Amino acid sequence: MPWREAKTTLTSVLLILVSASTASEPRSAAERFQSLQAQLRQSHASNDWRSNLVSANELSELLNGAPNSLLEIARAEIHLGDLESAIRNIEQFVRMDQSTDLLETSAEFAPLRKTRGFASIQSGMKANRSAISLGSTVFTLSDSKLLAEDVDYDPTTKRFFVTSVREKKVVALDSSGVSSDFARAPDNWPMLAVKVDVTRGALWATEVAMQGFSFAPESDWGRSALLCYDLKNGKLVSRIEGPRGSALGDMALAPNGDVIVSDGEGGRVYRLPVKGTVLERLDDGDFISPQTPALHRDGKHIFVPDYLRGIGALEISTKQVRWLSMEKGFALNGIDGLYFDRGTLIAVQNGTSPERVVAFDLDPSLTRITSETIIERSTDTLGDPTHGVIVGDDFYYIANSGWDVIDDHGNMRPGAKPTEPRLMRAGVPHKVRGPHDADRFTPP
Known about the structure:
By secondary structure, the protein is of the alpha+beta class. It is 18% helix and 31% strand.
């Protein structure tokens, strides 16, 4: 989960305040990102808009043309008087189903508002904010203070398991939403990811002492752990500490029992082999803030959503990443939860504007997105969605999690009041496929 210092809004993505890069050439994606942000900040302060445009284009290339990076380019182009190019980038931003008040309120975008094409841009953004709802409420969780994060399902007992950030526990819920405490965090840190391994009778979860948040002692900030509980009784079986400075916040489970866990703070992806005790790093520095991994059907790749860069297909044997393209108007940034089902990727995007739940259809090679179906956006029920789980032909997801009513330190915003989280359900939209498109997974 990309908590709020990582969950970049449209306003904060422009000139994020980060520390300057070191004198050496940045190597990892995170280092390159920080270096480019430092260059943008410096050129903005000195009104050097030509240098700013160069850095903005480099940033957009790094972020694979993510919507927010287009705003950065357009801003520089406006300062340089190139309104035609700025409009093209803004139009692409709108084609990606995005909307922002910046274009209508920021003084830096004022020249854009005087152009002939701005009315069309406004109309497009208004359409992008329109409500869509293909889901329905399964039940509400009675505890409004949970700060619900992740969810998984046990088909044997027909129970859902939901992690709580604020109350630092895993709760079990029956089909009507009646809940009971299943397990608590051994270190009293927020609970984030959860996955059920029915075959081995285990429930995997993570706990994270989230940097800058009041949910954990400051002395513990930067620590996280992977936890294994007995699925029958909630007894803690094992605890594996993550590297210092990590935030093991999202997880996937391979059919052979391997646990894949992402570190959204350190930009890394790890694997814990079945019966293993040591985390193995799978990536080579291509991620800035990796979120929930989704298993590719070939067993050789993992779909990894980076909160800033989009969706990358990570090849396990070589550590190489191939990014799915956003050029055709698909916004792939801001994904918290990602799930693969029969040629479709389902994404919970709480880092787009507006936030949404969406299904992306892939071509038969699973290397290109061909279409999208928005499941929910801009509704009274959605709030701040987080994660989900596929059960049969349906996708269940957490809506109204409560993240939108707390500040950057975990405290309730002035005047805000938490309301009950919801578990929503929608049918998984699929294209009609031939027999050759059937999913097959071979453990790596």
